[in-house]
Amino acid sequence: MKRIKLKRRQPNRSRGGDIGVYLVLVLFAAFMVIPLIFTVCQAFKPLDEIHKFPPTILVRNPTLDNFGDLFAIMGQSYVPFTRYIFNTVFITAVGTAGQLLIASMGAYVLAKFDFPGGRKFFVIITTALMFNGYITQIPNYLIMAKIGWIDTFLAPIIPAFAAPMGLFLMKQFMEGIPDSLIEAAKIDGAKEWGIFVKIVMPNVKPAWLTLIIFSVQSLWNNPQAQYIYSEDLKTLPYALQQITAGGVARAGAAAAVGLILMIVPIGVFIFSESNILETMASSGIKE
Amino acid sequence: MGKTLALYFRKKKRERQIAWKKAKMSKNCYLFILPYAILFTMFYIVPIGMSLVLSFTYYNVLEPPKFIGMQNYVNLILADDVFLTAFKNTFVLAGITGPVGYLASFLFAWLINELPRYLRAVAIVCFYAPSIAGSAYTIWQMIFSNDAYGWMNSILQWLGMEPKLWLSNPQYMLTVVIIVTLWMSLGTGFLAFVAGLQGVDRAQYEAAYVDGIKNRWQELWYITLPSMKPMLLFGAINTIASSFNVADVPEFLCGFPSTDYAVHTVVSHLKDYGNTKFEMGYASAIATVLFLAMILCNKLVQAIIRRVGK
């Protein structure tokens, strides 16, 4: 009896419970993953298999034809396809870089200094985590129109600087930096900006990465269609969505598009999983 | 009476002076936060205020807004049957996918937490992937397609049963949308839970074991949940945000508008009036209702979470 207990990782666990836990996890993991596997299979099916009756789920004769078709369609587009790719990369890169700088500056003083209004401001930001695009869409359009940003890159980029999620995660993570580190730098004669750049920022690298990834994900997934109507300013997800709207003949290319749109955010997440989890560990809202 | 009032004002004045001195001393703080504060105000706070103001007007973008008092709200409740349907659908959708998604996020995070390290990393990806997979939910249209090409229907036929109009029979539509929404509901909150569970102090569990806690359920209620409270609040905000804003999934799966408006949501209705009909005042009233519902729901959830572990 004693020996069994020693072997166990944790004392409060029954063996039956452990088996049950694994069973439940495998079952639900299958529910989560199977549709994604379908999406992958679909992209590698030849056209005759996509339209086969009765429908098959797994791919029998995998082929890269769909990707070939996709590139062929890309080659015929009105605006060179590299333009869409450039637009997406540009918006994502500038939007993310700006957010990293501006949100980190705000997060630093909110995390490390107690100044009048600071706490209230943070509560408002926390509430703003709940709003997503739809609630503010109409007034935002009117504001953009007023300042003449409609149909320019400013419309998707500048508001992204102030996305509440970035500042929120940054601030929560920065609270973990020991005050003594900042005090020591002050005694050494460093100015506020110097402390921010040389002490604080290098110490919150996991949060950088998390902020970058969240920002990339939201900019990547958003076709930005509402503010931009010039074809040569449109983004990759938008262009890809247009391809999928091509009907039956483009079902293959559409499946390839689905795979590309899916694989990028998941790939990025796998790549940075440990850093994101480290940041999330401090994400809690203290009362 | 007058004396106490004077005393009160003097105290207030003094507090203001102290606050002002403090504010002056933390000049640098304000400089640091200024760029963010300006942009945040411009694109998050001002729009909310504008939406509130516009909701009392008739505004079609071409003419200047005309003040019409509560008329939009009266119309919403008394004259717009579709809104009531949309409200009911959103209520049902959020009422089911919100709590279930939230509990599932926590449950799976908790179960995953006990796995060995590498298995855990894989499991996190599996459970989190659907929520970030872009347009991957489109695959569900193949699964539930109305014709015989749909996988669900071909399974039914293979079993010798009648195929069903999953996406255009109001009897099934809401269920399908709920399933797909739940499939995507392990999002940011789930990640926060996973990370939070890893951060719970191990020594607490050992102490609890000595104190006579017997199984994983007691451990969960008396130790894990109370030390996870901040994460629970963060997760709740994320869940509310995602469950009240369902619109893309039903619109893609069941079309827009859906049969009998069976899966028409408040956000769909908002998009309809804002983007198609250009009745901005009315759309703003819808946005305001949605906003208030979310704030109220958040307050309610906070009150519930405060009782956890007591």
What is the secondary structure topology, with strand pairs?
The complex is a heterodimer of chains A (287) and B (310).
Chain A: H1 2-7, H2 15-44, H3 47-50, H4 65-76, H5 81-112, H6 118-128, H7 137-146, H8 154-161, H9 164-174, H10 179-187, H11 192-203, H12 205-221, H13 236-244, H14 251-280
Helix pairs in contact in A: 2-14, 4-14, 5-8, 5-9, 5-12, 6-9, 9-12, 10-11, 12-14, 13-14
Chain B: H1 2-25, H2 27-54, E1 57-58, E2 66-67, H3 71-79, H4 81-112, H5 117-132, H6 139-143, H7 151-158, H8 170-183, H9 188-199, H10 202-210, H11 216-227, H12 229-244, H13 248-254, H14 266-276, H15 280-306
Antiparallel strand pairs in B: 1-2
Question: Tags for this entry?
Answer:
heterodimer; A: 287 residues; mainly alpha; MetI-like fold; 2 domains; B: 310 residues; two-stranded antiparallel ribbon; 15 helices; 2 strands; 1% strand; flat
Count of discrete structural domains of chain A? 2
**Mean pLDDT metric of chain A:** 83
The CATH class of the largest domain in chain B turns out to be: Mainly Alpha
- Rg calc of chain A: 24 Å
- Gyration radius of chain B (Cα, Å) is 25 Å
Oligomer: heterodimer
Portion in beta strands of chain B: under 5%
Principal-axes shape call of chain A: globular
Element order, helices and strands of chain A? HHHHHHHHHHHHHH
Please state the overall shape of chain B, judged from the principal axes of the Cα atoms: flat
Largest interface, with Cβ-Cβ < 8 Å? Answer: A-B, 93 and 101 residues
In angstroms, what separates the terminal alpha carbons of chain A? 45 Å
Q: What is the CA–CA distance across the termini of chain B?
A: 44 Å
Per CATH, the class of the largest domain in chain A reads Mainly Alpha
Largest sheet of chain B: 2 strands, antiparallel
